[in-house]
Write a structure and sequence with these properties.
Methylamine Dehydrogenase, Chain H; mainly beta; globular; single chain; 1 helix; five-stranded mixed β-sheet; five-stranded antiparallel β-sheet
Length: about 375
């Protein structure tokens, strides 16, 4: 990895039509779009457990500004979506199989054994979590705010802090663990420490933002090769945050670093060797492509990255950009895939059980499906 990044990566009711496209070329069609005149939908996460069963979660915002949690499920590959009752807005979801799953909310953790159609709150789960991952029905991890990572070995009945997450530098008030990724026994949890700064968002103060230099921040990696029995912690001062990782059993992972407007590019994708050497290489960065998710697939050479088109000046504008998806089979040559021109957002999230069955959700209430 280039020295600028310090080498830390080493070691979802309406079915609508698509668009004109060459039938032989894989492309992305809008399969679902939320259209209510009195509210909007913000999708926070998406999961597809099989090629037919999927879940999306987030919240709706009424004209009055009132927010209400929402969760949608499908049993027919997204042809129809049904609303499931939920009491809290889901931040992230994870499914172990076609029926067993968990969702993280601001106030705690909920579980389902009915593919998301009903949920039960786990009584002793921690709050303030952002991501969740289970290796089996009893053994799982959650990570979130205030420098906290927890482990359960009894299906969420009790949670134990992962001590190594609290070690090292960084004020817990400003330290967040924001991503978890596993493949078999190999796992990565990423975190960052970003103290607050003066001024508003960059898009509100473009002139000041242009003069404001992005400073490096503390980035944390927790890595395991034995299913979480032991962890190795590493820290480095780098630009940006490692917001997504996707690991494949073949010993390769993708890591996503997202930057602020002051940086030379909005994001950068790395190829990570999850073997003993743990080397990493920058494989994609482009000034007008803000990547927000990456995905590998077991036993496949297809690699997907998704995000939105920027104006190459202010990366994080309140105006959503056109969704862009790129693919590669060699990590060197990336191809832009055809995407319905109506698909826009500030964030694109990839989900699917394999490379042939893939969906993308946007934070603007759209779901796209890969058509081949």
């Amino acid at each position: 990895m280039p020295s600028r990044t310090g080498g830390i990566l080493s070691g979802v009711f309406l079915l609508i039509g698509g668009f004109d496209a060459v039938a032989a070329d894989p492309h992305w069609e809008i399969q679902y779009q939320y259209r209510q005149v009195d509210s909007t939908l913000s999708i926070n996460d998406i999961a597809f457990m099989t090629d037919t069963r999927g879940v999306v979660c987030g919240y709706t915002t009424a004209r009055s500004g009132k927010e209400s949690p929402i969760l949608l499920t499908t049993r027919d590959a997204g042809a129809h979506w049904m609303e499931a009752p939920v009491k809290e807005s889901c931040l992230a979801i994870f499914f172990l199989d076609d029926s067993t799953g968990w969702m993280v909310t601001e106030k705690g953790i909920w579980g389902t054994t009915e593919a998301g159609r009903s949920w039960t709150k786990l009584r002793n789960a921690p709050s303030g979590m952002l991501r969740i991952w289970f290796l089996d029905k009893r053994h799982g991890f959650v990570a979130g705010l205030e420098k906290r990572v927890f482990e359960t070995t009894n299906g969420g009945e009790t949670w134990t802090p992962v001590a190594i997450a609290q070690e090292g530098e960084g004020d817990p008030t400003y330290t967040t663990y924001g991503e978890i990724g596993f493949t078999e026994d190999k796992g990565i949890i990423t975190g960052w420490n970003v103290p607050p700064r003066r001024g508003g968002p960059d898009w509100m103060e473009p002139e000041r933002a242009a003069r404001r230099r992005q400073l490096p921040n503390l980035t944390i990696l927790l890595q395991t090769v034995d299913g979480g029995k032991t962890w190795k912690r590493s820290e480095a001062s780098i630009f940006g945050q490692i917001t997504r990782v996707s690991l494949a059993p073949q010993g390769v992972a993708l890591g996503l670093v997202e930057y602020k407007d002051q940086f030379e590019v909005p994001s950068e994708v790395y190829r990570i060797d999850t073997g003993v050497k743990g080397a990493s290489t920058s494989v994609f960065k482009q000034k007008d492509r803000a990547i927000t998710d990456v995905r590998t697939f077991a036993g496949s050479n297809r690699w997907l990255i998704a995000g939105y088109e920027t104006d190459a000046q202010i990366y994080h504008s309140p105006i959503p950009g056109k969704i862009r998806v790129l693919t590669t089979d060699d990590m060197e040559h990336w191809s832009e895939m055809m995407v319905d021109y109506r698909a826009v957002g500030h964030r694109a999230m990839i989900a699917g059980p394999d490379e042939k069955h893939v969906w993308i959700a946007t934070d603007t209430g759209m779901i796209l499906r890969l058509i081949e």
